[in-house]
Amino acid sequence: MNSQITAIAAYAPEKRIDNTYFEKIIETSDEWIVSRTGIKERRFAAEGESTSAICVKATEKLLNENPGVDLEGVDFIIVATTTADQVMPSMASQVQNTLQIPNAGCIDIMAACAGFIYGLILAKGMVAAGTHKKILVYGAECLSRFTDMTDRTSCILFGDGAGVALVEPSETPKILQTITGTDGSYGKDLYLSQTATVVNGEEIKRDGKIHQNGKVVFKWAVRTIAQNAGELLRKNNMTLDDLDWIILHSANLRIIEAVANEIGYPMEKMLTSIAQFGNTSSASIPLAWDLARQAGKIKKGNKMLLLGFGGGLTYAGAIVVV
Fold first, then answer.
1. Pick from 155, 172, 189: which residue ends a domain?
2. Out of 113, 228, 236, 252, which one is annotated catalytic?
């Protein structure tokens, strides 16, 4: 059985944090941040605004902005996040309870910035197996609560937000061939520790904050994503000319520019959410999609290559037809 994304929406908290905020707490400037990351502002969740709560708000936007879409018959909920309110109960079960969706299966998945695409891949497989017919897939993060505000190289990057896609059966393939991969040897270069003090035999900080080796991750991302964008196209018997848009995880505008240059694809066809929302991890791809949708860029029948990459270090990609 084939599958498709029948509706998509995203939510960002109301609290806007522009670059001048960081000028007051660390040694930096708006010019420095924009020139190195492309970020102009990001959103922070309000006190008491949880990861599961912003998933619900994304769902409300999904329903309000897509006439004819409802939650009747939703039989599975997937939430991709690395910033859950708690380990148990899951964010998916909290969403299920708030939205009062009876008897839906619920899981959280943790694949960092690639999480939303991993969720789409899982949903595609469940629809293909014939076991489920209507699946909500979320990418949601409250990264501001896990950011070390004394680290000038990383605190400027992260923001909060949530996106949701509705995946249902389709008569023709709309979520096409996908790709996944991981190189766990880089685990120590991007981590958020709970109890562990060692990753891959090396000591890490157990402080509940995000830590990354930016230079290593940057090089890995450009090399890996450029290579696997090509592999994903080959799996689908397509070329760059067949695509209308590419959406990479909005980690840093300079990464996206470097990948575009490496594969020879125009930047104006690379959809991003980095300038408005910063690095929102698993939420960045649906946020970029939603921005482009609202701007009238994405049209029915468009083909889009989606690729997420992040902590693991892991990646996941899919080509979808709108």
1. 172
2. 113
